[in-house]
From TrEMBL:
Tagged with keyword Cell membrane: yes
Protein's name according to its UniProt entry: Probable membrane transporter protein
Transmembrane segments: 45-62, 74-91, 97-116, 137-156, 171-192, 204-222, 228-247
Family note: Belongs to the 4-toluene sulfonate uptake permease (TSUP) (TC 2.A.102) family.
Gene Ontology cellular component terms for the protein in this record: plasma membrane
Alphabetical UniProt keywords: Cell membrane, Membrane, Transmembrane, Transmembrane helix
Record localization: Cell membrane; Membrane
Topology of the protein relative to the lipid bilayer: Multi-pass membrane protein
Length: 248
């Protein structure tokens, strides 16, 4: 019964987030935490689901001409090795939930800001962007990604929009690529440290659910799914999970 409920929730998250270029890692972690799943299994499951969702998204964004590869690699230059380091760092359960609680709370507040205060407007990319600044920001997000299992797109996207880094569609493609490479690097860091916590009976159905949801979401227009409203709806879930972790 529990796995059925999780599959339905993971499908909905993947369906909604993939259209915006996100993997849904923050929501997967919030759901798994509320269901009391082992923290090591949480990290690997969230990263694997991120990879499953955004792989299709990266392909569709690239095929549609919305993934500038030069910028994608610039953003990932520092993030990939730091995501690997984050996955390798041994964390005690209390430390993990403290970091994750803070990360989820900040993510939820960012989502609330986007829903209530951010205006839908056309982004006109600036001619010049400071590569090292965005690379440094990407590195910090990559480290957090490897440590917690959050892909990082939920943090990167607002920063890129605020800095007018590229068009809205290209930012979605860049976020999708960023999540993919950092999730893989985080998993690699975990694998080097010790065998990845993995349970086929638990994880496989969830992966199937997010693959189906992610493929559907990647093919649907953002106008249909309205990711902004989805963010507003799921922000409360993530905020509740984050605050609950911090209290405990």
């Amino acid at each position: 019964m529990v796995i059925t409920e999780l599959c339905i929730l993971f499908f909905i998250v993947a369906l909604a987030y993939s259209a915006a270029g996100f993997g849904g890692g923050s929501s997967y972690l919030a759901i798994l935490a509320l269901w009391g799943i082992d923290f090591q299994l949480m990290k690997s499951t969230a990263l694997l689901c991120n990879v499953a969702v955004v792989t299709g998204g990266v392909y569709h964004f690239y095929k549609g001409g919305h993934l500038p590869m030069k910028k994608a690699w610039q953003l990932s230059l520092a993030s990939v090795p730091l995501a690997f380091v984050g996955g390798y760092i041994p964390l005690k359960q209390a430390t993990f939930f403290l970091i994750l609680g803070i990360a989820l709370t900040i993510a939820a507040l960012a989502m609330c800001y986007r829903f209530f205060f951010e205006k839908e407007e056309i982004i006109v990319p600036r001619e010049k962007n400071s590569t090292w600044i965005y690379s440094s920001i990407g590195g910090a997000i990559g480290l957090l990604s490897g440590m917690t299992g959050i892909g990082g797109g939920i943090y990167l996207s607002p920063v890129l929009k605020l800095g007018q880094y590229d068009t809205a569609k290209n930012i979605a493609g860049l976020s999708s690529f960023f999540i993919l490479v950092n999730s893989i690097a985080g998993l690699a860091g975990q694998a080097i440290k010790h065998p990845i916590a993995f349970d086929w009976k638990f994880t496989a159905p969830l992966l199937v659910s997010v693959v189906i949801g992610g493929q559907l979401g990647a093919r649907l227009s953002a106008r249909v799914l309205k990711p902004r409203y989805v963010a507003g709806a799921t922000a409360l879930l993530i905020l509740y999970a984050g605050v609950r972790m911090l209290i405990k």
